[in-house]
Design goal:
Blueprint lengths: L2 E9 L5 E9 H7 L3 E5 L8 E4 L7 E5 L2 H11 L3 E4 L8 H10 L1
Antiparallel strand pairs: 1-2, 1-5, 2-6, 3-4
C-alpha cells in the first residue's frame, strides 16, 4: 500500500472552509470516494456541513507520496489526522451497512 500525505478541502461559501491534512493510502482514498460525509455544525450553529467525497483532484489532493519523507513525518507527527478535519473520521459505516442490507 502506498502511503500519501493528503489535503482535504471543501469551500463552504460564506461560512468558511473545511480543511484537513492526514496520512492515508491511495487505496483508502479510492474507497472513500463517493461516500457521504457528515461533519455536523463544525462551522457554527445551523451550518450542517455534509456531502459526498469527490476524491482525488477534487476535494482531496496529494501533498506528497515520497515514502521516505512520509516515514520521517509519521515518526514526528504520528499517523492519521495531522491537522484539521479528516473525512475518514466522519463516515457513518452503520448507515452504509443498513442501506446495503435494505437493498
Amino acid at each position: 500500500m502506498t502511503k500519501v500525505i493528503a489535503n482535504f478541502k471543501w469551500d463552504c461559501g460564506r461560512n468558511g472552509d473545511v480543511e484537513g491534512l492526514f496520512v492515508t493510502t491511495l487505496e483508502d482514498i479510492e474507497k472513500i470516494t463517493g461516500k457521504y460525509v457528515y461533519f455536523g455544525e463544525i462551522l457554527g450553529k445551523h451550518s450542517e456541513v455534509s456531502g459526498d467525497i469527490e476524491g482525488l483532484g477534487n476535494d482531496i489532493n496529494i501533498v506528497t507520496d515520497d515514502q521516505e519523507f512520509i516515514a520521517k513525518f509519521e515518526s514526528i507527527m504520528g499517523s492519521g489526522t495531522v491537522s484539521g478535519y479528516n473525512p475518514f473520521c466522519y463516515i457513518n459505516d452503520d448507515e452504509t451497512n443498513e442501506e446495503e442490507d435494505n437493498e
